[in-house]
Amino acid sequence: MSTNLNKNGDCMIVERVQEYLEKIEKMKDINAYIEVNKERVLKEAEELEKNEKLKDKPLYGKIIAVKANINVKGYTISCASKTLENYIAPYDATVIKKLKANGALIIGMTNMDEFACGSSGETSYYGPTKNPKAEDRIPGGSSSGSAAAVAADLCDMALGSDTGGSIRNPASHCGVVGFKPSYGVVSRQGLCDLAMSFDQIGPITKNAEDALLLTNIIKGKDPSDSTTVETPKFEKEDISNYKVGVVKEFMEVADDKIRDKIEKGIEVFGDLGCEIVELSYKYVDLALPTYYLINYVEFFSATRKYDGRRYGYRIEEVCGEEVLRRILIGKHISEKEYSGKYYKRALQARNVMRKEMMRILKDVDVIVGPTVPKLPHKLGEKLSPMEMYAYDVLTVPTNICGICAGVVPCGDVNGIPVGLQIQAKPFEDQKVLSAMIAFEKAL
User: Fold this and answer.
1) Distance of CA 213 to CAs 19, 62, 108, 209, 250, Å?
2) How far, in Å, CA of 17 to CA of 386, rounded?
3) Residue 437, CA distances (Å) to 1, 235, 270, 442 in order
4) What is the spatial distance between Cα 62 and Cα 99, in angstroms, rounded to a whole number?
5) From 322's CA, which of 9, 91, 195, 221 has a CA 20 to 30 Å away?
């Protein structure tokens, strides 16, 4: 709260909003935002400064960017697609209601891969987002704009969504903190879903303490989302007695330069008093086919409402190549003669992967390792779909298994950030967040 006060203790939210608006304009080539309504946000800042009831709230005056697939009343919720380019949200998502009730101010809607289909931030109808830490490189996706906005200091914090790594991937590439809560910890009401059994909203922040703060604000049971559960408030705890698992197969997937940074990060946990335990996970090779088969089918189902009668345009007529690919493959897999051959077997594989993940997590507090297997490619570089999907091999197991995971910066390779991923059992989000905070402080 002190960052929102001047030396006399007077509130200065309007001034801070103006500073951010000027920076956003100056750095518009980053293309982090799709929509910023200057008049609206300045008016809301003035009203917030006068609101005595909110001044003691934990997010009072915090300026937050929101991924363009989360409903914020009065803003365009385009999902970075021509399909919904004129769709104005008629209501606030549950997470947005919680932010506002705790004194936060929404500054705008951030760019993303179209309908969250992508790992690079390049598939947006509004053009690619640049990586503020390495402007010739991709920022990662699909929450590209949210990560870029935080990395470029164009907001205090941001919200993203994570279906298979869409918070953690760009957080790693942009050198910021990202957290994917356990499935069910945060309401998905008001989120335009990519794959409903994987999706989870989470924070992207400048430090791990803010990730803890923001997660505690947005979490909780929601009558509008039957998948949600109530959990106790997550508290920072001492990790010196933690058992920290290192999965050798996860390490082997990463290239040498990334693995070197992660190994140094693991040493930090040893220095903090943690016991390092080597683990083996047998099903890394199942991760991508299992995830994408389920993703295709659930995404195809989710897009049937974009038929051109109720929302904007018919999606198949105006969407980009990657979105169309997922729709067509999902339709094919869903057909009666193929559903048992592909989709049902993918669900079986998912159960196998979950059981194996619970087995290796049984005797450790957290697992640490790389977030992505390779450094971000250069903007405009042509990759095949399978090369692009390969970015997700280390993040999709988290979503498949419904566990929690966070990313914290752990150095760079020639100026390109590298993020350390930390995972834990379902609903042990406190352990991940505590490990992120301890690691960040030690580093």
Assistant:
1) 24, 12, 20, 6, 29
2) 41
3) 19, 11, 15, 9
4) 9
5) 91
CA separation (Å) from 8 to 12, 53, 107, 200, 259?
Answer: 11, 20, 26, 41, 48
Residues 211 and 203 sit within 8 Å (Cβ to Cβ): yes
The per-residue pLDDT for 30 is 98
In this structure, are residues 379 and 130 in contact, taking their beta carbons and an 8 Å threshold?
yes
259's tokens: 């693995």
Q: Which residues contact 17 (CB under 8 A, 6 or more apart)?
A: 41, 42, 45, 63, 105, 107
- Residue listed under structure tokens 């971000």: 376
Question: HEC states along 200-238?
Answer: EEEEEECCHHHHHHHHHHHECCECCECCCCCCCCCCCCC
Distance CA 164, CA 357 (A): 16
| Residue 221 near residue 361 (C-beta atoms within 8 A) | no
Exposure string of 380-395, with b = 16+ CB inside 10 Å and e = fewer, is eeeeeeeebbbbbbbb
pLDDT along the chain (443 residues), means of 10: 48 93 98 98 96 96 98 98 97 98 98 97 98 96 98 98 98 98 98 96 98 98 97 98 98 97 98 98 96 96 93 94 97 85 94 98 97 97 93 97 98 97 98 98 94
Q: Are 371 and 178 in contact (CB under 8 A)?
A: no
The pTM (predicted TM-score) of the whole model is: 0.96
Bridge partners of 421, per DSSP, are: 369, 407
- The residues assigned a catalytic role are 67, 142, 166
- Sorted by sequence, the CB contacts under 8 Å of residue 59 that are 6+ apart come out as 99, 102, 103, 104, 213, 214, 217
Cα–Cα distance measured from residue 294 to residue 342, given in angstroms and rounded to the nearest whole number: 9
Predicted confidence at residue 8, as pLDDT, reads 42
Evaluated on CA atoms 153, 37, 127, 397, the torsion sign reads: positive
Which ranges of 127-201 does DSSP label H, i.e. alpha helix?
144-151, 168-174
What pLDDT score does 3 carry? Answer: 55
Residue 4 pLDDT:
62
Residue 5 burial (CB < 10 Å; 0-12/13-18/19+)? middle
- Measured from the Cβ of residue 227, the count of other Cβ atoms closer than 10 Å reads 17
Burial of 285 from C-beta contacts in 10 A (0-12 / 13-18 / 19+): exposed
